[in-house]
Write a structure and sequence with these properties.
Elements: E1 3-6, E2 16-21, E3 24-34, E4 40-45, E5 49-54, E6 59-63, E7 72-75
Antiparallel strand pairs: 1-6, 1-7, 2-3, 2-6, 3-4, 4-5
Length: 80
Amino acid sequence: MDLRYITDWTQLPGARVEIRQQGSYVCGGIVDVVTDDGKILWVQSPEHDRRLFEKDEFYEVWAAEDRTGFHYEVTAGLSS
């Protein structure tokens, strides 16, 4: 499955995502809420319940789906 590195978090509510920190997998789940400035989001994860992530702490969001409005880079060969 191709994952897309998402640069604009404001478009993510409701999206299925994978969270990474400096390239390492942290968790996967559904984006619950994103702040208006797109710097903080909450992910509802079956692995870890609901968690908060901040861009300033080097978290990355990778989406397994394509949506209109997503700003992303396609990276082939990665699996969740």
